[in-house]
């Protein structure tokens, strides 16, 4: 091997599986041709709380196509898999509306669906409480918030500092329940071969799903084989096994034939997780020059009766700005609702709405450029841990964004630009996301023909992971990318971590890098490398990507409609491994940020305990016509401390701060602070 | 989804004759098929009317237009006579749905699409529209985009069409055929208010088929404006269709219809009366909108529609004046 081949990392290689995807050749979970497959349809609870006494199936006995109607009265027992939502059809308790209470298995999809409509549920409903309130009597402070942070942090005396501060902001911001809605719904085909289980499953972590489903069936993890070769998005909702995987496996065991279960869009709103609504209270105290003396950020969130999911809404405030006196905290209440889960930048995305909109309000009070306010509060090291940043180019992102966006000369007072019926304004907000890596193992095998095969049980959920890992291996081995055969999407390959926490490329790329380097160093033809020890030794604090979002909006004074004329994101996220797939990730996050700012909202009917807008006609996400001008750029940033590639995660930072930039721009256009998202015409019109 | 029979028809008489008591006509299917998947519509037979000879747009003597019930929304929007003489109709059509849906949706089907009320669309919820007597959870529940005019204690649903709002302002007539023969229905009489029978959307009898829509000779001075929660592919939060002719500084002819405010496309007759013979000024337009909105009974979360319709009506008319 020689190193005469040009490096591919940093080049805009197209997605390797792109042609297969656009020609329909790429198979997603529900598309695998499986002999004798049968079809399942879930019956969901119509009440949020109660006891399921019986499932009446008499009218179905004459339908030859129906093979089984499973419920807790007849379903086989499952072991504890560490996730109460996976204990499907095991108990008579109903803990939320939409919970799977029965499963119909039939020879055809149509028969399963028809029978599911006709199943009669005998339920003793109980009074329920599905409504999050900031003054809920049962609010409590959890011990930890995700993934493993203290729920509270306290430095100095925030209350005293606020009382003494010459300028203060004391505001409350709310974000609604949001639903991940990947294009590909959650789906599984389960095939038993004796005691071995094969799952074609749409998920972000094949080995994790294998381990969890194995636990549910009392098997060792090696007996469950999960294939997730192509995944049509997840946004966090496929990070762990969801009920569809266990239900399909359970049903396949009962009917003795393979079972396919693809959730309908409506079920994605209740069965696979969502982003908790948040109610945030932000208090800032500052000197007249803008230097913060106090930062307090509290969040109220919900979790379910089944288990505690504690989103880390305010932890991002622990490392954004310098201030001597600080408090961050979280309070939860258990409601009769589905358990919230991860959704793209869980914690950071809603948390930065509160913090960065409050910063904009502080800039207004001070009569200061909101960029300058942020620059004046740039910390030397992580403000709460004291750990130095491995790299932090937040101010550079703000300055570069200002230059590109044309920020200079902006009149900072609101409602001064008008063109016809439109009020026009601009806004800025910061972005940050932790840089993480998790243990993974990669195997590299050199072929006799000089090409190489790389295997790792990674998941490409549309991000370009397969392509990036190919580039990394090619450069480490000194081969052209076309000489690398990258095998991912199969749990029987060497263990890989989840495609989540923006950590996939870092974690898997690290393992691939080390395996390739050891192969070259030792001259062996095959090397398997596990990064567990290396990662255990790494300092975890002080590692973040940063960025700055800019938005220009116009608000129609006739209707209150908001349109986003321009969005710009500037990021400092380490080494960008592939500018094409990276840009796609940034733009995707920013687009989702627009949805969070302007469109997305799970509308709860507290009487029925569910979100009434549970399809894509009624739950709005941005469409093409909403995106007029959107741009993502990045600064060159070298950070040798994060991982051998010098890369930082980029899957989530695009949605962190972009909603706040839009909300701040709406204020700048109109002079109206909308503090409960989404910003819609009905909230603006009365004030225009 | 309930199992159903499928019967394609090639002649109008054959289609009408084939429609049994639990059957439905299938045109573009863009609404009906969704409702069947949700269990809201449960026909035992679909009589496919896509092959009927109802796909022409003809110019009528005197400048009117006859639109076949099977004409696709995208074809109608692009029709040169529609674009030239009935801009309000072309604009309304293009404001609706998406390109793919407009390619399938038909003129007749668009008129008969059902409400997007989120309770109506969910068979696990009570709704007087899908099961009379079960109540209307929207009155106290989610109703931000439901009716402010002409609603009843039994139903606060809105009609979702954009096209129908334009047709209301154009004084269209609807041709219908059925088991007992042909008849013509004035556009304003086609859809009904919910009253205590909200499960009945229109004055058509079961088995009657819309064959076409006639538009009288136009005033070319017309426009449609729609407010919505995103830039495209969203139902109206409020919409205005208007036709305006002025002479010597006075309003001679004005027709105004509102969308997303009532169980039917809402012809704003009080506003029209208030404007006839008046000067076409913003003040008069606002006062006329207020006259119409005096009867509004907004719910907890949809009061904003009053200001929305008031502003939009004045702005659309100002644009035509």
Structure overview:
The complex is a heterodimer of chains A (688) and B (321). With 688 residues, chain A is α+β, with helices and mostly antiparallel strands. Helices cover 24% and strands 25% of the residues of chain A. In chain A, the strands form seven sheets. Chain A has a seven-stranded mixed sheet, sandwiched between helices. The longest helix of chain A has 21 residues, at 579-599. The model of chain A has no long low-confidence stretch (mean pLDDT 97). Among the domains of chain B are: 5-48, 2-Layer Sandwich (Uridine Diphospho-n-acetylenolpyruvylglucosamine Reductase, domain 2); 222-320, CO dehydrogenase flavoprotein, C-terminal domain (Enolase-like, domain 1, 2-Layer Sandwich), CATH 3.30.390. Chain B has helices at residues 12-18, 32-37, 73-78, 80-85, 87-95, 99-104, 107-111, 163-169, 187-190, 269-275, 282-293, 304-320; strands at 5-8, 23-26, 45-48, 57-59, 65-68, 173-178, 181-186, 209-215, 222-227, 238-247, 250-259, 266-267. Chain B has a five-stranded antiparallel sheet with strand order 4-5-8-6-7. In chain B, helix 5 (87-95) packs antiparallel against helix 8 (163-169) and helix 10 (269-275) runs antiparallel to helix 11 (282-293). The radius of gyration of chain B is 19 Å and the shape is globular. Chains A and B meet through helix 2 of A and helix 12 of B.
H/I helix tally of chain B: 12
Round the Cα radius of gyration of chain B to an integer and report it: 19 Å
Q: Major beta sheet of chain A, specifics? A: 7 strands, mixed
- CATH architecture type of the domain at 222-320 in chain B: 2-Layer Sandwich
The SS-based structural class of chain B is alpha+beta
Which percent range fits the helix content of chain A?
10-25%
What proportion of the residues of chain B form beta strands (DSSP E)?
A: 15-25%
* CATH homologous superfamily label of the domain at 222-320 in chain B: CO dehydrogenase flavoprotein, C-terminal domain
- The secondary-structure class of chain A comes to alpha+beta
């Amino acid at each position: 091997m020689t190193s005469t081949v040009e490096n591919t990392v940093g080049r805009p290689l197209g997605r390797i599986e792109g042609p297969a995807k656009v020609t329909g050749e790429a198979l997603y979970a529900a598309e695998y041709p499986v002999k004798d497959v049968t079809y399942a349809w879930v019956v969901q609870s119509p009440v949020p709380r109660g006891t399921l006494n019986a499932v009446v199936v008499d009218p179905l006995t004459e339908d030859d196509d129906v093979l089984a109607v499973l419920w807790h009265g007849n379903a086989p027992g499952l072991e504890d898999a560490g996730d109460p939502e996976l204990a499907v059809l095991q108990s008579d308790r109903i803990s939320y509306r939409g919970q799977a209470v029965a499963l119909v298995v039939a020879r055809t999809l149509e028969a399963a669906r028809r029978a599911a409509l006709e199943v009669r549920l005998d339920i003793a409903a109980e009074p329920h409480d599905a409504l999050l309130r900031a003054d809920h009597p049962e609010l409590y402070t959890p011990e930890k918030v995700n993934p493993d942070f203290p729920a509270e942090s306290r430095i100095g005396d925030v209350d005293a500092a606020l009382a003494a501060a010459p300028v203060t902001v004391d505001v409350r911001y709310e974000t609604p329940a949001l639903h991940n809605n990947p294009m590909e719904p959650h789906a599984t085909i389960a095939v038993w071969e004796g005691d071995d289980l094969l799952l074609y499953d749409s998920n972000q972590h094949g080995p994790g799903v294998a381990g969890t489903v194995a636990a549910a069936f009392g098997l060792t993890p090696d007996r469950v084989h999960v294939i997730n070769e192509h995944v049509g998005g997840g946004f966090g909702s496929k990070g762990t096994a969801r009920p569809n995987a266990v239900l399909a496996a359970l049903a396949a065991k009962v009917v003795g034939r393979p079972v396919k279960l693809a959730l309908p869009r409506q079920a994605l709103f209740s069965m696979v997780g969502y982003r908790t609504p948040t109610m945030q209270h932000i208090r800032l105290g500052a000197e007249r020059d803008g230097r913060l003396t106090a930062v307090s950020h509290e969040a109220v969130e919900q979790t379910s009766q089944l288990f505690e999911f504690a989103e880390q809404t305010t932890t991002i405030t622990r490392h954004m700005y310098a201030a001597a006196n600080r408090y961050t905290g979280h309070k939860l209440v258990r409601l009769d609702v589905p358990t919230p889960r991860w959704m793209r930048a869980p914690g950071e995305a809603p948390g930065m709405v509160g913090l960065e909109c409050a910063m904009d309000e502080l800039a207004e009070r001070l009569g200061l450029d909101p960029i300058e306010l942020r620059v004046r509060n740039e910390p030397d090291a992580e403000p709460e841990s004291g750990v130095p940043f491995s790299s932090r180019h937040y101010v550079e992102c703000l300055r570069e964004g200002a230059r590109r966006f044309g920020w200079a000369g902006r009149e900072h007072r609101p409602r001064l630009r008008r063109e016809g019926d439109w009020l026009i304004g601009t806004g800025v907000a910061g972005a940050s996301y932790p840089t993480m890596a998790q243990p993974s193992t990669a195997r590299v095998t050199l072929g006799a023909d000089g090409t190489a095969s790389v295997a790792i049980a990674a998941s490409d959920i549309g991000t370009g992971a397969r392509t990036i890992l190919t580039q990394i291996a090619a450069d480490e081995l000194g081969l052209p990318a076309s000489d690398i055969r990258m095998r991912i999407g199969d749990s029987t390959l060497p263990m890989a971590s989840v495609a989540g926490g923006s950590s996939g490329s870092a974690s898997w790329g690290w393992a691939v890098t080390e395996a390739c380097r050891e192969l070259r160093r030792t001259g062996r033809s095959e090397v398997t490398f596990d990064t567990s020890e290396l990662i255990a030794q790494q300092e975890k604090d002080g590692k973040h990507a940063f960025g700055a979002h800019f938005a220009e909006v116009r608000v129609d004074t006739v209707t209150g409609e908001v349109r986003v004329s321009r969005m710009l994101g500037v990021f400092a996220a380490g080494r960008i491994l592939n500018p094409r797939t990276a840009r796609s990730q940034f733009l995707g996050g920013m687009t989702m940020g627009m949805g969070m700012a302007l469109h997305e909202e799970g509308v709860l009917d507290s009487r029925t305990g569910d979100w009434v807008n549970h399809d894509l006609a009624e739950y709005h996400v941005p469409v093409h016509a909403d995106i007029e001008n959107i741009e993502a750029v990045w600064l060159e940033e070298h950070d040798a401390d994060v991982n051998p590639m010098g890369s930082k995660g980029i899957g989530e930072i695009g949605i962190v701060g972009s909603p706040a930039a839009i909300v701040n721009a709406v204020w700048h256009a109109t002079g109206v602070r909308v503090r409960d998202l989404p910003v819609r015409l009905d909230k603006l019109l009365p004030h225009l | 989804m309930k199992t159903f029979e499928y019967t394609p028809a090639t002649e109008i008489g054959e289609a009408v004759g084939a429609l049994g008591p639990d059957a439905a006509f299938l045109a573009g299917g863009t609404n009906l098929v969704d409702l069947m998947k949700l269990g809201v519509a449960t026909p035992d037979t679909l009589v496919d009317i896509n092959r009927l000879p109802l796909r022409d747009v003809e110019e009528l003597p005197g400048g009117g237009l006859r639109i076949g019930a099977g004409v696709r929304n995208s074809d109608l929007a692009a029709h040169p006579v529609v674009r030239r003489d009935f801009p309000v109709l072309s604009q309304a059509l293009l404001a609706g749905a998406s390109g793919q849906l407009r390619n399938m949706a038909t003129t007749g089907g668009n008129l008969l699409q059902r409400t997007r009320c989120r309770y109506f669309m969910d068979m696990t919820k009570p709704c007087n529209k899908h099961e009379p007597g079960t109540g209307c959870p929207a009155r106290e529940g989610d109703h931000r985009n439901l009716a402010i005019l002409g609603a009843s204690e039994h139903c606060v649903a809105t009609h979702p069409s954009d096209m129908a709002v334009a047709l209301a302002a154009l004084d269209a007539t609807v041709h219908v055929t059925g088991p007992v023969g042909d008849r013509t229905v004035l556009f304003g009489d086609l859809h009904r208010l919910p009253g205590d029978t909200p499960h009945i959307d229109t004055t058509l009898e079961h088995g009657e088929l819309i064959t076409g829509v006639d538009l009288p000779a136009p005033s070319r001075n017309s426009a449609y404006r729609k407010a919505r929660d995103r830039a495209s592919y969203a139902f109206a939060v409020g919409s205005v269709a208007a036709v305006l002719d002025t002479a010597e500084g006075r309003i001679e002819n004005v027709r105004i219809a509102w969308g997303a405010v009532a169980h039917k496309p809402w012809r704003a007759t009080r506003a029209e009366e208030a404007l006839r013979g008046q000067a076409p000024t913003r003040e008069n337009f606002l006062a006329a909108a207020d006259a119409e909105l005096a009867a509004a009974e907004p719910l907890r979360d949809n009061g904003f529609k009053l200001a929305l319709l008031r502003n939009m009506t004045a702005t659309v008319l100002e644009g035509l004046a």
